[in-house]
Amino acid sequence: MRITSSIEYATRLMVTLAAEHGKAPLPAERLAEIDNVPADYVSQILVKLRRAGLVTSHRGSAGGYSLSRPPREVTIEQVVRAVDGSVFEEVCERYDAGSKDCRHQGQCAISPVWTRLGEIVTRYFESVTLAAILEQKAGACGAVPAWLEKLTPGK
Amino acid sequence: MRITSSIEYATRLMVTLAAEHGKAPLPAERLAEIDNVPADYVSQILVKLRRAGLVTSHRGSAGGYSLSRPPREVTIEQVVRAVDGSVFEEVCERYDAGSKDCRHQGQCAISPVWTRLGEIVTRYFESVTLAAILEQKAGACGAVPAWLEKLTPGK
DNA sequence: CTCATTCTTGACTAAAATGGTCAGGAATGA
DNA sequence: TCATTCCTGACCATTTTAGTCAAGAATGAG
């Protein structure tokens, strides 16, 4: 399991835009320089972010991109969903496809594990805002949260 | 983000083997039938599980595979690690590659988000044993655990 | 001892996802 | 009016995923 480059890039772009929130819009090319991401690729990602309503674009000279909403109202969940379409793909749907072919049918004991994992990931992403990332520059995000400790390894 | 077929298959195989724990070993082909997974693919996955020490193989007639340890001592984390090599790939390592090229260097605010996500996923997988999956056939795993509720969406 | 059974190894392939590039066009405002 | 900037969609290379295949080596039942 991994974080794709698109997600990584999109998050970085959003954080950069968050830092500029309230100021003049940033052109895609400028964003590419700042975040060290291929310029054409940046444009592609920005299109998705715009279609999801997360950023607003302005054409013409002195144009560029800016956040549609204040950084504290934007979560990583929204960014991931904008780029990937969903946060966590439901496993059963790959096998279901409308038919009776699903290997999960009947007394399936496993699918709840994946479903729950999806919930956990989604919840976590929902809990992280751009504002929080900006504020915690030095890595306060890195600590294991208290509630996580409640999960005792090995059952 | 998604669960790959290999992971899904491996988990299913392990659960099936867990149900047979203590009885005669199950041949790979038999496992393939039971779990509805391509036979040759099953063999490949079983090899990884064996190399990780999770299952034991017996050759010859009446041979097959069996769990190396009781179901309550085997976690999903171990299964995932056996198949994928790791539970969650560290994002920075993809860019690092030993050079100064890492876009996460300096005051990177984002990488802790991915690191923490990795911890959360790993912890969750460590908390689910084969025994637990077997016992909760009807889907008790599906409920959102209490500790998860502590994560308030939107920061 | 022999032979069917079963695992072992490793190469091979097709399809999908990922990561990235490119070109032509349409708006905008200086 | 024209340089700037976004917009659209096609295109491509690489990697990963999913699955297949074949030759061979153990093993134990008979």
Set down the secondary structure blueprint.
Two copies of one chain form a homodimer.
Chain A: H1 5-19, H2 28-35, H3 39-51, E1 55-58, E2 64-67, H4 76-84, H5 91-96, H6 111-127, H7 130-135, H8 146-149
Antiparallel strand pairs in A: 1-2
Chain A binds a DNA duplex (30 and 30 nucleotides) through helix 3.
Low-confidence stretches of chain A: 97-101, 138-155
Oligomerization state of this entry? Answer: homodimer
Largest beta sheet of chain A, briefly?
A: 2 strands, antiparallel
Structural class of chain A: mainly alpha
- Report the C-alpha radius of gyration of chain A, rounded: 19 Å
Q: Fraction of residues of chain A in helices?
A: 40-55%
Strand content of chain A: 5-15%
Overall 3D form of chain A:
elongated
Order of helices and strands of chain A: HHHEEHHHHH
Q: How many strand units of chain A?
A: 2
Strand order of the largest sheet of chain A: 1-2
Largest interface: A-B, 66 and 66 residues
Q: Span from first to last CA of chain A?
A: 22 Å
Tally of helical runs of chain A: 8
Mean pLDDT of chain A: 84
